[in-house]
């Protein structure tokens, strides 16, 4: 059955039951147990930000499903060149079967969804990265199991915010350690609480790592924040995921990539058998394929 939502802008646009079903479908498709198709379907992919995993996973995924993905960069369409976003959305909705957008401002993806007469998927905004969360939850299922505790260590960014809510929906225990000035939006913890999670953020990484099955981190300086580099590097002193922080634990390590090796995580950790990052990257495609089939009505 298709999802109750027409669009996927953040992880809690679906219900916990729908999230569970999405992950079940993704696992089945990955294992080759089912082979749904989207014949002749076209996905318009809008990119304000450069990408490796988002572009390749969606484009390859649509090909595997029997459809077609169309890359629309800032120099390819009128986005940001004078045409209102709502007009771009209206036109795209009459051409394509779905839109995936990787944008800066979250309000822009909401505008697309409001005016496009087709499903819209958030491929990343400054506030949320729900497709990454789907891949993360699939990876945790496959490796450490759903009875897991995950520690988020580092910047309270878009990836972390979506993951905290998604983990709560999946029944995964989550702990959060960020510098005080770079924490998550308090509304994120309120949303997680709606699914039974009681997240009390801390500024002490060691306090959350000790009991964790997985330690999750991400870059400290995201795209568009390069002018904050010196300030942020000073604020994140002590938050690096390294051998010392992980000492005495069996915790696996997750990172959505790309990683700034030597900043938020060491090269040694990423190259160790603790790292789940390559499974996460692969699972972007499998999780998104399941989402595409559900939203676009695959056969």
UniProtKB/TrEMBL annotation:
InterPro entries: Asp/Orn_carbamoyltranf_P-bd (IPR006132), Asp/Orn_carbamoylTrfase (IPR006130), Asp/Orn_carbamoylTrfase_sf (IPR036901), Asp_carbamoyltransf_Asp/Orn-bd (IPR006131), Orn/put_carbamltrans (IPR002292), OTCase_ArgI (IPR024904). Carbamoyl phosphate binds at residues 51-54, 78, 102, 129-132, 256-257, 284. Keywords: Cytoplasm, Transferase. It is found in: Cytoplasm. Residues 7-142 form the Aspartate/ornithine carbamoyltransferase carbamoyl-P binding domain. Its EC number is 2.1.3.3. One of its GO terms (molecular function) is ornithine carbamoyltransferase activity. It catalyses: carbamoyl phosphate + L-ornithine = L-citrulline + phosphate + H(+). It comes from the Archaea. One of its GO terms (cellular component) is cytoplasm. L-ornithine binds at residues 158, 218, 222-223. Residues 147-293 form the Aspartate/ornithine carbamoyltransferase Asp/Orn-binding domain. GO terms for biological process: L-arginine biosynthetic process via ornithine. SUPFAM superfamilies: Aspartate/ornithine carbamoyltransferase. Coiled coil: none annotated. Its main location: cytoplasm. Belongs to the aspartate/ornithine carbamoyltransferase superfamily. OTCase family. HAMAP family: OTCase. This is Ornithine carbamoyltransferase. It comes from Halorubrum rutilum.
């Amino acid at each position: 059955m298709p999802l109750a939502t027409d669009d996927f802008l953040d992880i809690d646009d679906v219900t916990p039951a729908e999230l569970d079903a999405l992950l079940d479908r993704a696992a089945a498709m990955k294992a080759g147990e089912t082979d749904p198709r989207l014949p002749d379907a076209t996905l318009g992919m809008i990119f304000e930000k450069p990408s490796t995993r988002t572009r390749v996973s969606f484009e390859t995924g649509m090909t595997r499903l029997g459809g077609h993905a169309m890359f629309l960069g800032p120099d390819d369409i009128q986005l940001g060149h004078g045409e209102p976003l709502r007009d771009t959305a209206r036109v795209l909705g009459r051409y394509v079967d779905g839109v995936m957008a990787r944008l800066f401002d979250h309000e822009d993806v909401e505008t697309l969804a409001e005016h496009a007469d087709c499903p819209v998927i958030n491929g990343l905004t400054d506030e949320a990265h729900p497709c990454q969360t789907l891949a993360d939850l699939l990876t945790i299922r496959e490796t450490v199991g759903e009875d897991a505790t995950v520690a988020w260590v580092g910047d309270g960014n878009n990836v972390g915010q979506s993951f905290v809510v998604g983990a709560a929906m999946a029944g995964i225990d989550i702990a959060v350690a960020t510098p005080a000035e770079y924490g998550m939006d308090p509304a994120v913890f309120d949303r997680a609480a709606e699914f039974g999670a009681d997240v009390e953020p801390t500024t002490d990484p060691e306090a959350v790592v000790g009991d964790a099955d997985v330690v999750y981190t991400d870059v400290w300086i995201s795209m568009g924040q390069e002018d904050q580099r010196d300030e942020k590097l000073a604020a994140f002193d002590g938050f690096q995921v390294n051998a010392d922080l992980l000492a005495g634990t069996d915790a696996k390590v997750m990172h959505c990539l790309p990683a700034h090796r030597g900043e938020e995580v060491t090269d040694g950790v990423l190259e160790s058998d603790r790292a789940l990052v390559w499974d996460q990257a692969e699972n972007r495609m499998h999780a998104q394929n399941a989402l595409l089939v559900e939203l676009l009505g695959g056969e």
